From TrEMBL:
It comes from Magallana gigas. This is Mutator-like transposase domain-containing protein. It holds the Pfam family Mutator. Residues 1-16, 24-37 have a biased composition (Basic and acidic residues). InterPro entries: Mutator_transp_dom.
Length: 378
């Protein structure tokens, strides 16, 4: 083959591979590069894997797959040798099918299904995570492992309140970033909002919540976040509470009407039990007076009495009971039996204003229900 036709074939090849001819592809520069290549250390052993296919297309298909894998491993096909790609593919397949000797497999080096805790790791940062987020992290790692055989390790762990943004990286500097909790519309972390909900719903004060979180080392949501959600949370829970109370009253009425029909007696109304609890033990600023139905033990009425309503906290229960009867009137609900603890003013109020009532002022009236009420009002 003469020099001219070799050059033509080379140019055609270049055209096919989309590589432009550069100035360094001829003259002194090319000669210098070829000299350098000659000096490079040649491999001592050559291996040959021969494969047989039915058509030229099948052969090209194998080569194309090989190039694709090389491009996954590096930016250029030419920077990965055939030996490197074969080893990577073989290792990946063997690993995938559990055919690697564990002792020689560094990929298994730090996985332990039962992870013991040493003294040093007791102070590690903790964060909340969810089922969906764990699955997402698994997907991210699996996606990386499909294209890279290097091991992933935690590079960075940034905490946002109770959640964390975790960044994994491998020796090839691939990055996999995932959050420990999913986001709600608007971008807030579910786990953080759930904790805000738990603080509001249990009546724990911010300082107490902070102490718990500090001791447990589970991160903390700043007070400003609580303040920004306060109004929305209050209006929504108020609506839900009203709905729940309405449902509970309907349930009690239905149960009592059925009972009256069964026993062939007139329906006088529902049976309730009430009790009051002060918001704080000392110098009560507010009291919750709660009425629960006798049959289903669900809250059928709630009255909150504050110091502004009555400065004397001992009078809060009777004020609450008055408000409750107003609430039952507004809901067209009549009361038949009212059980409560020994509170003289409540007794007096019921005797004067609700003479139709059967009054039970002893705890034996319905011990189970009262103990339930006790649990409801800590
Ligand atoms: Zn990687």
């Amino acid at each position: 083959m003469d020099g001219e036709s070799t050059k033509r074939i080379r140019d055609e090849n270049r055209e096919q591979h989309g590589r432009k001819k550069r100035r360094s592809d001829c003259g002194e520069k090319m000669k210098a590069r070829n000299e350098k290549r000659k000096l490079q250390e040649k491999p001592l052993v050559t291996g040959c894997i021969r494969f047989y296919v039915k058509s030229e297309d099948d052969k090209v298909s194998v080569y194309n797959k090989m190039d694709k894998i090389k491009l996954c491993m590096a930016e250029k096909v030419s920077s990965v040798t055939n030996e490197q790609v074969l080893n990577a593919v073989f290792d990946f397949y063997l690993q995938l099918n559990g055919l690697v000797d564990d002792a020689n497999d560094e990929r298994n080096f730090n996985f332990q299904p039962y992870l013991p805790c040493d003294k040093k790791s007791t102070d590690e940062d903790m964060f909340l995570t969810t089922y969906s987020a764990m699955r997402n992290i698994c997907s991210g790692i699996q996606h990386h492992n499909q294209t890279c055989t290097e091991l992933l390790d935690v590079k960075k762990l940034q905490r946002f309140g109770h959640t964390a943004k975790v960044t994994f990286t491998c020796k090839d500097n691939h990055l996999v970033t995932a959050d420990s909790s999913q986001h709600l519309p608007g971008g807030l972390f579910l786990a953080n909002l759930r904790m805000i909900h738990s603080v509001y719903a249990t009546g724990v004060r911010y300082s107490q919540y902070k102490r718990i979180c500090d001791s447990a080392n589970i991160g903390i949501v700043p007070e400003s976040a609580f303040e920004s959600h306060h109004n929305l949370y209050c209006s929504m829970t108020e609506d839900l509470a009203k709905e729940s109370i309405k449902d509970a009253i309907n349930e009690e009425v239905t149960a009592e009407v059925l009972k009256a029909e069964e026993n062939d007696v007139p329906f006088y109304g529902i049976n309730i039990m009430t009790d009051a609890r002060h918001g704080w033990r000392r110098n009560a600023a507010q009291s919750d007076v709660v009425a629960i139905g006798q049959t289903h033990h669900r809250v059928v009425g709630l009255a909150v009495v504050t110091r502004q309503d009555d400065p004397v906290s001992q009078r809060h229960e009777i004020r609450g009971v008055e408000n409750l009867y107003q609430h039952f009137d507004e809901n067209d609900t009549s009361i038949n039996i009212h059980g409560h603890d020994r509170n003289a003013s409540v007794n007096k109020y019921l005797a004067v204003h609700q003479p139709q009532l059967v009054r039970r002022s002893d705890a034996k009236y319905n011990f189970a229900a009262f103990s339930y009420l006790d649990k409801l009002l800590p």
